[in-house]
Amino acid sequence: MAKILQVCKLIVWDECTMAYKRSLEALDRTLKDLRDNKKYFWWAMILLSGDFRQTLPVIPRSTVADELNACLKSSNLWRYVKTLQLTTNKRVFLQQDETANVFVKQLLDIRNNKVAVDTLTGFITLPTDFCYITDSKEELIQRVFPDIAQQFNNHKWLGERAILAAKNKDIEDLNATIQTFLPGQLVSSKSVDTVMNQDDVLNYPTEFLNSLELPGLPPHNLQLKVGTVVIMLRNINEP
């Protein structure tokens, strides 16, 4: 990784608004050290991509002032950032989908506080044509993936639909429920849960190793059916 950072000319940082200013400053210091140069980012172009209407992860016992002071715009490096705004929705432009154009406008109105608010509950009132409210997780799955038992091998059909959730735990629960609709038996694949050095057995018991859920890696007990669509985030067995 160090060799790559030494020669790269462009670094794309997606969802940058979810990072703290110290992360940006740490990248700056890392590039300076790796390239033995004191210029900011050693002239590598850093593309910070994100929506600043999103918020940072909540800091425990933090105040609004703490949150603002932690964001990227509070960094001393922000004065070297040139802001560019995207104005064209490519899905609407390429597909000429007017319904998508209406949906985009509705989303912007919600983000910009231009929708009605219920005085009693304090909740916003969604437009009647904004979405369909489901009463259960199973109904949501049936709405998004009707006839999935017959269509799960149709990648084009799958590529036209998705369920989004705020938390990874919700996605895991949805994926597990969706798999119950697929034909076949679940196959369990468990990760290695023993240490190589027997002197570390007491420090790293099997129960502890089984409980680890590392970002970008499958869970300890990965349960799949034949034909289940998966996304490979990392190839551990690279050439």
TrEMBL record:
It catalyses: ATP + H2O = ADP + phosphate + H(+). One of its GO terms (biological process) is DNA recombination. Residues 207-238 form the DNA helicase Pif1-like 2B domain. It holds the Pfam family Pif1_2B_dom. InterPro entries: DNA_helicase_pif1-like_DEAD, P-loop_NTPase, Pif1-like_2B_dom. GO terms for molecular function: 5'-3' DNA helicase activity; ATP binding; ATP hydrolysis activity. Residues 2-116 form the DNA helicase Pif1-like DEAD-box helicase domain. Gene3D superfamilies: P-loop containing nucleotide triphosphate hydrolases. Its cofactor is Mg(2+). Its EC number is 5.6.2.3. It is an enzyme of class 5 (isomerase). Keywords: ATP-binding, DNA damage, DNA recombination, DNA repair, Helicase, Hydrolase, Nucleotide-binding. Belongs to the helicase family. This is ATP-dependent DNA helicase. The lineage of its organism: Eukaryota, Metazoa, Ecdysozoa, Arthropoda, Hexapoda.
